[in-house]
């Protein structure tokens, strides 16, 4: 674990202002150094360009080539090695390795060639200064190239340091990505295991109970003596509803057991064209219902069709549960501006305080279905008494 000081240093280095601040400091130092120790035109230009170009090394890394070249040019123009050239040259070589502007071998080879050229210029300068400089083919002349050797070693070290930092950061990034992928895979496996557990519970408990209801309702019409025709039809409706619930339950089990990212092979989802059947089912179990459709029927996207059907289905279920025997009216309005309006109202005694916003899973589920397609749903006492569920589902721009 890194210390707070190390984290602050890393954050400062990663800040956008870091190259501008450091480049400006090196440039100011170069100007001060040139004032104290004046140099020729070539050295002055090389020193200033090498230092000032550092400010763009992050936004445009190839400029580090200019930084190093200008530094070598400034050093070749004078036998004195300015501190600002040393600093800017080291930073430039580090940047070339860190940003991988060129392959490290090419960068070091180019630096070595530049060091040899600078060394040859200095040898020529020493000769003109009447210093004891042996000819290149005489004994001891190899010692004249110690300068180029040292410069090459410095260039090599700075480039390799930058390349090592780059490699370490790439390794750290790859490790973090691998950890993230592993965590995502574990979460997906946990979710699939949970889905499988829910599917098993539904199959072992709910499916068994619903199938027993269907079997008992079917057998009751044959084993119970003295049944009236109305009672016989009632048992048949119970059996049919149970079988329909079993089909829906099998579809749900298929969805739960299908791995995420794969398409479940399910039966077609109900649409608004099935509302008539839904109202008939409501009537078959003793309810009084009426379906009213206004506007021109247009096919809606599948999500809107299913949401509208499920909202109506839940509203009719609530009406049977809380207002048995009440008259229920289902209104579907295909209005202008691509707005589908659903109203399910009954003339029962109402639901009381327990049916306010957020009360019960049924109302919450209807609101969630409406919100899923960008609509809204309200539920409460109707203007003429009873209970009213109203949903507005926009399915496109007008």
What does this protein look like?
By secondary structure, the chain is of the alpha+beta class. It has two domains: 4-182, no CATH class; 287-394, 2-Layer Sandwich (Heat Shock Protein 90). The protein is built from eleven helices and five strands. It has a five-stranded mixed beta sheet with strand order 1-2-3-5-4, covered by helices on one side. A hairpin with a 5-residue loop joins strand 4 (376-381) and strand 5 (387-394). The longest helix has 78 residues, at 146-223. The protein is rod-shaped. The model is unreliable at 261-266 and 353-359 (pLDDT under 50).
Q: Mean pLDDT, rounded to whole units? A: 83
Give the helix/strand class.
Answer: alpha+beta
Main sheet summary: 5 strands, mixed
What fraction of the residues are assigned to beta strands by DSSP?
5-15%
Overall 3D shape: rod-shaped
Strand and helix order: HHHHHHHHHEHEEHEE
Would you summarize the structure shown here?
With 398 residues, the protein is α+β, with helices and mostly antiparallel strands. The protein is 62% helix and 10% strand. The chain has eleven helices and five strands.
């Amino acid at each position: 674990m890194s210390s707070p000081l190390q984290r602050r240093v890393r954050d400062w280095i990663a800040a956008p202002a870091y190259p501008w601040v450091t480049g400006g400091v090196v440039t100011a130092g170069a100007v001060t150094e040139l004032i104290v120790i004046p140099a020729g035109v070539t050295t002055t230009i090389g020193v200033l360009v090498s230092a000032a170009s550092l400010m763009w090394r992050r936004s445009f890394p190839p400029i580090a080539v200019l930084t190093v070249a200008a530094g070598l040019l400034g050093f070749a123009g004078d036998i004195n090695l300015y501190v600002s050239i040393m600093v800017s040259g080291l930073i430039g070589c580090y940047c070339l390795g860190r940003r991988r502007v060129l392959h490290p071998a090419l960068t070091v080879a180019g630096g070595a060639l530049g060091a040899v050229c600078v060394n040859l210029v200095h040898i020529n300068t020493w000769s003109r200064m009447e210093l004891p400089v042996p000819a290149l083919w005489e004994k001891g002349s190899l010692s004249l190239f110690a300068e180029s050797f040292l410069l090459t070693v410095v260039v090599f070290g700075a480039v390799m340091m930058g390349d090592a930092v780059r490699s370490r950061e790439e390794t750290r990034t790859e490790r973090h990505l691998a950890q993230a992928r592993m965590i995502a895979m574990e979460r997906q496996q946990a979710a699939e295991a949970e889905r499988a557990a829910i599917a098993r519970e539904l199959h072992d408990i709910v499916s068994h109970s619903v199938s027993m209801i269907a079997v008992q309702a079917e057998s009751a019409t044959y084993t119970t003596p003295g049944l009236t025709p109305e009672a016989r039809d009632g048992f048949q409706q119970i059996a049919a509803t149970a079988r329909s619930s079993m089909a829906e339950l099998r579809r749900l089990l298929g969805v739960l057991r299908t791995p995420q990212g794969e398409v479940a092979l399910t039966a077609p989802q109900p649409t608004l064209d099935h509302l008539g059947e839904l109202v008939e089912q409501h009537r078959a179990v003793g309810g009084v219902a009426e379906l009213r459709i206004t506007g021109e029927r247009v096919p809606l996207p599948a999500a809107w069709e299913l949401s509208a059907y499920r909202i109506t289905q839940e509203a009719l279920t609530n009406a049977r549960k809380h207002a048995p025997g009440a008259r229920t009216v289902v209104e579907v309005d295909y209005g202008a501006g691509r707005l589908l309006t659903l109203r399910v109202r009954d003339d029962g005694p109402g639901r009381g305080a327990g049916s306010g916003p957020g009360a019960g899973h049924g109302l919450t589920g209807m609101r969630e279905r409406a919100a899923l397609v960008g609509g809204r749903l309200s539920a409460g006492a109707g203007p003429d008494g009873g209970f009213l569920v109203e949903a507005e589902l926009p399915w496109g721009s007008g």
